[in-house]
Amino acid sequence: MLTGKVWKYGDHVNTDLIIPGRYLDNYDANHLAAHAMEDIDPSFASLVKCGDIIVAGRNFGCGSSREQAPLALKASGVGAVVATSVARIFYRNCINVGLPIIICDIADDLSTGDTIEIDLSVGEIYINGTGKLISFDPLPDFLLDILERGGLIAHMRTQISL
Amino acid sequence: MTFSQKVLSRASGKDVVTGDIVQAKVDLAMSHENSTMVLSSFRDIGAEKIWDPSKVVLLFDHRVPANTIKTAEAHREIRLYAKESRLPNFYDLGEGICHQVLPEKGHVRPGMLIVGSDSHTTTYGALGAFSTGIGATEMAAVWATGEIWMRVPETLRIHVRGKLKPHVRSKDIILKIIGELGADGADYRCVEFTGNTVDSMSISSRMVLSNMSIEMGAKAGICFPDGTTDRWLTDRIQGWDNVETDFGQNSTPDEEEKFDISTLVPQVACPHQVDNVCNVTNVEGIRIDQAVLGSCTNGRLEDLEAAEALLRGRMVHRDVRFIVVPASREIYIEASRRGILASLASSGAVIVNPGCGPCLGGHQGILAAGERCISTTNRNFRGRMGSPSAEVFLASPDTVAASAILGKITDPRKV
């Protein structure tokens, strides 16, 4: 179960907004975290707390294939991303770096600062304070497995050692 | 079978249907500067060697020559790795942009399954390859196993018919399509570009369509191989012989969109989204500080020729920096041989070495706060080319060249 405070954004939040190209020559996690969401929300990096959840509208993570985008969010403490729809490379990158990503049309029910609980394996989001429970299609088992191991690297290690 | 079903059936060794999740064998895997991230993950996985070095292509294009010490060190690491591992397909910083260089060097063939750790890997669809972008860690897994999981995508066929008017190009077509369908209008799907407009296009023009398919969320964006493809490949691949002709051209797509472009006028994507598209006439007169001609979208010979034809004998406006980035060494040499580079330089253009140039805000033309740029590149996201308060407009080579001359967004039909 993931529980966290919501940071809410709109549609088409692209990877240049999540981590601008000018910071991509350095892959250090702290460096990426310090500039996460900088061009859309300059206060994000300094205020985000461990376990917070990004909730957004359509086409989250569109644009570049840069894995630094989910890495920057994960390094800044974000515990999950929930969006109405997600661009495909970003979706795969989230799973691969071990950042839970959920496709669920929930943004209209939430504001920044709300608290939600996510059950990844059942496929439910509970909105604290309103009692509202919203279902989503859980990830296929093989992707949940990668997430549970913390990402593709750890998953591949177990594959190679088999 | 659709194109996707055919390629993914072959690559997974079983007959697939749309929606299947398959484990597919990769025919070609490309990485650029992010090879350092790939290599780091590859080592973390514990893999010892690349599954098939002949199927991996590495090159540098994003920040060439190195723009910072960090970049220089990253380049050095990969350069050394390529040498020590005897990778047969490593191109150092002199060749140009991956999405031009790989086709030029004959690495891309119709029907291939190609992955690249770059979103514009869709470009190779212009030669009939199923080609898509992935992240660095996933690429490390491909290096280790040669395989990747794929969901067999739905097909969106985009039928384009009609003859383009002068100074209207494939860039205007794709901007129009993205403007109509939206930035997620092709999400997860394989786009097939068909119709007599596409049939009569050069490979370079088709590459513009395939390249920008990702800007509407497509997984792949293909043009069916034909005689033009065959001639292009004959020049590139020794002993090229076209054996496969059925790529699913006659299959039924999940959805079809039709565009008649015979009356299309030059298009412009306004800040800060690629689907924020209008006719050039709606934004004429907006003052610009910089114009950029280049990128994996529009840095090819026909693009340089179009710009040169408009600029010949004229000067770039004194308040504008006009930056020209040929997409590859081959294009640079040919444009030089034909006098195009000398002509552009005489008109006041700044010509930089082949590479990604300022497209992603790395170097070679970063925008200051409040500045405005018109560019033939593929993304106009906030902060993409420098300051988050700068603005980027996307357009064709003709529109960019015309705007460079007058110092404001200009309809190329009026210059």
Write the layout of secondary structure elements.
The complex is a heterodimer of chains A (162) and B (415).
Chain A: E1 2-8, H1 15-18, H2 29-34, H3 44-47, E2 53-56, H4 68-75, E3 80-83, H5 88-97, E4 101-103, E5 115-119, E6 124-127, E7 132-135, H6 141-148, H7 152-161
Helix pairs in contact in A: 4-5
Chain B: H1 3-12, E1 21-25, E2 28-31, H2 35-45, E3 56-59, H3 69-84, E4 90-91, H4 98-104, E5 113-116, E6 130-133, H5 136-145, E7 147-151, E8 155-161, H6 170-181, E9 190-194, H7 196-199, H8 203-212, E10 220-223, H9 227-236, E11 255-260, E12 267-269, E13 277-279, E14 290-294, H10 295-298, H11 301-311, E15 321-325, H12 329-337, H13 340-346, E16 350-351, E17 372-375, E18 391-394, H14 397-406
Helix pairs in contact in B: 2-5, 6-8, 11-13, 11-14
Give descriptors for this structure.
heterodimer, A: 162 residues, alpha/beta, Aconitase, domain 4, B: 415 residues, Aconitase, domain 3, 2 domains, 5-stranded parallel β-sheet
Tally of helical runs of chain A: 7
Portion of residues in beta strands of chain A equals 15-25%
Q: Give the distance, in angstroms, between the N- and C-terminal Cα atoms of chain A.
A: 29 Å
Q: Major sheet of chain B: size, sense and barrel closure?
A: 5 strands, parallel
* The CATH architecture of chain A: Alpha-Beta Barrel
Uncertain runs of chain A are none
SSE run of chain A: EHHHEHEHEEEEHH
Total domains of chain A: 1
Largest interface: A-B, 39 and 49 residues
Mean pLDDT of chain A: 95
**What is the strand tally of chain B?**
18
What's the mean pLDDT score of chain B?
97
Q: How many structural units, i.e. domains of chain B?
A: 2
Biggest sheet, spatial arrangement of strands of chain B: 4-3-2-5-6
Query: Do you know the CATH topology of chain A?
Result: Aconitase, domain 4
Shape of chain B: globular
Number of helices of chain B: 14
Q: Major sheet of chain A: order of its strands?
A: 4-3-2-1-5-6-7
CATH homologous superfamily identity of the largest domain in chain B: Aconitase, domain 3
Strand fraction of chain B equals: 15-25%
